[in-house]
Amino acid sequence: MTKKRILLKLSGETLLGEQGFGIHQDACMQVASYLQKIQQLNMEVGVVIGGGNIFRGIDLRLTGMPRTPADHMGMLATLLNGIAVQQALIARGAKACVMSALECPKVAEPYNWTKALQYLSEGNIVIFVGGTGNPYFTTDTAAALRASEIHANMLLKATKVDGVYNKDPLKYPDAVKYERISYSRVLAEKLQVMDATAIALCRSSQIPIFVFNMQRLLEDDIGQVLTDFTHGTLIEEGE
Ligand code: UDP
């Protein structure tokens, strides 16, 4: 049976653990454990990791810093996270490599499409860091880009809530969750799930996006979480 290939987008906050800032070793081990479980479902696994647990360009800009260096700091933060997850995976006996869009060759191999495909097919969990390598983008867009490039069957977006709602469920108790929704509707209604560039790229590459609560990866049978889409919201082609 041909293996499915997925791209999992994890925000940097996933690595916070109980802390308010930085990387928590237990959280890295937990992430590593569910990445391995996903791989054991006969899937090739790519991961794009964010940097929000350390720096977000937007926050630094509030201090008056210009956007480009602020975003450089944000992208560098994703390298720290990627290395932490790679080392947790290796400690658990998995094969894992880090490829960076922001060239830093002594630290992480520069991103290369051919090699990424090779590493995936050889059973490595490939962690893509450095975002897109450009300021003014987000790691959500990097996830859509890498998912498109590696021809992922699906982009998995783990979030703090359990899907896409018509309004912020953390603020509005009457918010309604969508089980399925089209890319175009997410864009038209400006639903806050991923930035518009990421959604538009997935739409043009026809990559379905499954949005779900990352807690489910920790608590539930991962096979069920990734096949029973009622646990979250599936964004795909539609009306
Ligand atoms: N970033 C960037 N270009 C990219 C991806 C990320 O400049 O292609 C910067 C940006 O400053 C962003 C930070 O890296 O705020 C961390 O990424 P993100 O905010 O997407 O992380 P997450 O919220 O997923 O942890």
Annotation, overall tally of beta strands: 11
Order of the strands making up the biggest sheet: 4-3-5-2-1-6-10-11-9
Number of helices: 9
> What separation lies between the terminal Cα atoms?
32 Å
Distinct ligands, ions and cofactors found in the model: uridine-5'-diphosphate
Computed over alpha carbons, the radius of gyration is 17 Å
Would you tell me the overall average pLDDT?
94
Reading the helices and strands in chain order gives EHEHHEEHEHEEEEHHEHHE
Strand fraction equals 15-25%
Explained architecture:
With 239 residues, this protein is α/β, with parallel strands linked by helices. The chain has helices at residues 25-40, 57-61, 67-91, 113-121, 139-149, 183-188, 196-205, 215-219, 222-225; strands at residues 4-10, 43-49, 96-100, 109-110, 125-129, 154-159, 164-165, 177-178, 180-182, 209-213, 233-236. The mean pLDDT is 94. Uridine-5'-diphosphate (UDP) is lined by residues 11-13, 50-52, 56-58, 71, 74-75, 77-78, 131-132, 134-135, 137-140, 142.
Please sum up the structure shown.
38% of the residues lie in helices and 20% in strands.
State the main characteristics.
239 residues, alpha/beta, 9-stranded mixed sheet, two-stranded antiparallel ribbon, 11 strands, globular, binds uridine-5'-diphosphate
What are the SSEs and their pairings?
Blueprint (H helix, E strand, L loop, with lengths): L3 E7 L14 H16 L2 E7 L7 H5 L5 H25 L4 E5 L8 E2 L2 H9 L3 E5 L9 H11 L4 E6 L4 E2 L11 E2 L1 E3 H6 L7 H10 L3 E5 L1 H5 L2 H4 L7 E4 L3
Helix pairs in contact: 1-3, 5-7
Bound molecules: uridine-5'-diphosphate (UDP).
Uridine-5'-diphosphate binds next to helix 2, helix 3 and helix 5.
